[in-house]
Each structure stands twice: as C-alpha cells, then as structure tokens.
Amino acid sequence: MNKRPAKKNVRETALELLETIDKNQSYSNILLNHAINKNQISDKDIGLLTELTYGTLQRRMSLDYFLQPFIKNPRKIESWVMHLLRLTLYQMLYLDKIPDHAALNEAVEIAKKRGHKGISSMVNGVLRNVQRQGVKQISEITDPIERLSIKTSHPKWLVKRWVEQFGYEETEKMCELNLTAPTQTARVNRIKATREEVLAQLEDEGFAAKASPFIPEAIHSLRGNLAHSDAFKSGLLTIQDESSMLAAYALAPGSDEIVLDACAAPGGKSTHISEKLGNTGKVIALDLHDHKVKLIADNANRLGLENVETKAMDSRKVQEVFAAESFDRILLDAPCSGLGVMRRKPDMKYTKKEADLLHLKKVQINLLRAVSPLLKKGGILVYSTCTVDKSENQEVVTAFLQEQLGFEGDESLKERMPEAVQSLVNSYELQILPQHIGSDGFYIACLRKKVQ
C-alpha cells in the first residue's frame, strides 16, 4: 500500500513556496492559497506561514546583504539552501516571537532532511556566525539610491526611476510601505444594503471591520477574511482595493447608460459600475480568457446584478464587434506592470525589468486607439492602471491626446471623486501612491470625446 506523502510543517511549507515562486516566477498570492490547502495548514498557523513567506520575499535583498559576509561562494550553494538561510535569518531578525535557537535548530533539521551532512553543517555554521557576530549595517552604504534599494529590497533601477519621478522622500515612503501587509478592504453592494447594515451583520458573524474614512461604500477588515463571511456569500460585499473603487467614481455612469469595461476580469470594477447604474442600463465586460470572463459572470450573479453582459475577446479587436459611437462611457483598465500592487505580490520586485515598461506602453496606447472610436460624442473614457510609473500613465495619456484631437482631458473629474481624495486630483488625472490612503498604487485619467 502506497503511503501518503507526509504533510509539511509551516517552515518546510514556506521553504517549498519560496522555491516554487522563484523557479516558476509564479505569483506568491496564488501559490500561498494552494499550499495552505495542500498541506492542511491549521488556522492558527496560516498567519505564521503568510508572514514567513511574504516577509522573506519582501526583504530578500536586505537578507542577501546581511548573509553575504558569511557565505564564501554563494553561486555554489543550491537555491533551496539560500532560501532556507534567508527564511531563517528573517525569523531571527524580524520575528520577536520565535527564539533564535528554535529557528536555527529547525533550519538545521530541514537541511539534514533535504540534503547531506555537509549542507546541514554549513547552514548551522553560517547561522551561528550571524548570531555571534551580528549583521553589517545598511547605513554603511554611501550611495543613497543603493542604500534605499537594499534597505527596502527594491531593485536599484526601480528606486532610481521613482526618485527621478517622485523625489527621494516620496520614493522612500512608497518603498517602506511596500514592506507592510495590505489591509483587506471590501465594497458594500448598496443595491442590497447600507454600509451600517453590513458592518452590523459582520459583527454578528464574529468579524471585526470598520467604515473607510476615504470611500463611502468601503469597509476595512480588522479581523478575519471577509471573503469567508456570509455577507460576502450572499452578495452584500465585493473584495476590492479602495484605489480601484475610484475608477467607477471617475466614470460616474448615469441611469440607463451603456458602458464598456474593456479589460474587466475579475469584475470588481464592472460590478461597481453596475451597482452605480442601479441595475439599469448595461455593462459589457470583456476579457481575453474564458475562465476570467466566467469569474466576472460569477461575481455579478453573486451580487444579484442583472445588467452585466460578459464576452471573451481581445479588446484590441472591439471595432470588429461593436459599432462606432455605441457606448456612453468606456473604462479601459489597461494591462500594466502592476508596480502599484507590490505589497500583494512582492516577488514582482525581482522579476520585472525596465524594458517591460516600454513594451506595455505600446500595448496600452494600442488599446486606447482600439476602444476610443466606440465612444459617443460627449462621452467619458476613463483610462486606469494599477501602476505608479509615469511611462505607463501620464506619458500614455499625453501621447493619446496629442494623436487623437477629438479627445480632451475632463477637468470636472475632481467634482466626482469622494471628498477625501479630491486634493489628489490634478486637472483630469489622479495618481494614488500607496502612502496617500494606504491603498494600492493606482492611476486614473478621465477623457471626454469632443462634441464638435
């Protein structure tokens, strides 16, 4: 009879996750959920597993800087051993609850189980030397860009780029915040209930949540995953970051209008637009992949929304399917580098390249060219991304406006925004940095098609 493979403990699971993320360049948030289910991690250990995995990923460059003096030839060390050393050093330096000796002993046991005696001896030696001698100070780095890069584990090219775009102080705030766990936020479906009613129901269910100070229909989770609540299952809530809720505010659809959401999965913005329409009119939600389109439809059904129509297609080909000037409003939440969501996907810091941004810029402009003829005269086109980089944001919109003389920036954008974010609006644009309201980084440009 075949034995079932032994379940891995929390640290073994974290190590396996770090290896898989590195090897496959897969997103950590997806793999973490899979690992929790596969290894039947208990509720009390999920928090530790998340902390170990995300924390080690978040601070990888700092950890390598600290380990470097203690490792003679890092290139000869197998990748899983480097991950084990980082994981253990993270516990020793950043987690007060775990005694150094416990973290160290477990690392040696894992090394024995997975490797030979030489590996476990090396792991033991490196970690005991760190424990005895302490780590070198990041403050010793004289170049301010490199120092911030190592201190916050952001690649040097990205720190340099952000300092040029936002200045050192704002870049430092953004990089520091990217090391912290994001707050889970949710949007109340105001077709079904008020925010106060939903907060009361969540309290009855044993969750702790509070009203957002920024967005009237948003709530912040203080304890518990709101996606596991009955309020979520019965369609009173959508899990969504607050910054992306602002896209529907910028669009501000009126009753019975026909709206196109050109890159819609998983449907957070489509369903928000539908709710703002009060279940009138129609939202046509497009995405390239069938399984993603199904997600949008499933979300709309859960929320009890009947005015969302989904279609799997490449949005660059919309003119082959829809007539010119057939939509009152269009949202293009364009594919982007995702540099605004690094707190959720910390592994992204080590896989993105500067050249990726140039390629994306071309895709984004082509999408704007494709969808813009479908907008009625006087209609609103909202371009949004979950990045903070100017090449994908302001530069794309400026290039589009210079090319398409039938469009202009809509300077009434500020009036439609929630009061708490109005001061961040600059003419027809809004760039949210993570430190502004504690959300993801997000960009919105609001454009109007000229009547004449």
UniProtKB/TrEMBL annotation:
EC number: 2.1.1.176
Keywords: Cytoplasm, Methyltransferase, RNA-binding, rRNA processing, S-adenosyl-L-methionine, Transferase
Residues at which S-adenosyl-L-methionine binds: C263, A264, A265, P266, G267, G268, K269, D287, D314, D333
Active-site positions on this chain: C386 (nucleophile)
GO biological process: regulation of DNA-templated transcription
Cellular compartment(s): Cytoplasm
Catalytic activity: cytidine(967) in 16S rRNA + S-adenosyl-L-methionine = 5-methylcytidine(967) in 16S rRNA + S-adenosyl-L-homocysteine + H(+)
Top-level taxon of origin: Bacteria
InterPro entries for this protein: MeTrfase_RsmB-F_NOP2_cat, MeTrfase_RsmB-F_NOP2_dom, NusB-like_sf, NusB_RsmB_TIM44, RCMT, rRNA_ssu_MeTfrase_B, RsmB-like_ferredoxin, RsmB/NOL1/NOP2-like_CS
Residue intervals of the SAM-dependent MTase RsmB/NOP-type domain: 174-450
GO cellular component terms listed in the entry, alphabetical order: cytoplasm
GO molecular function: RNA binding; rRNA methyltransferase activity
Name of one Pfam family that matches: NusB
The family this protein is said to belong to: Belongs to the class I-like SAM-binding methyltransferase superfamily. RsmB/NOP family.
Function: Specifically methylates the cytosine at position 967 (m5C967) of 16S rRNA.
NCBIfam families cross-referenced by the UniProt entry: PRK14902.1, rsmB
Name of the featured protein: 16S rRNA (cytosine(967)-C(5))-methyltransferase
Organism annotation: Cytobacillus horneckiae
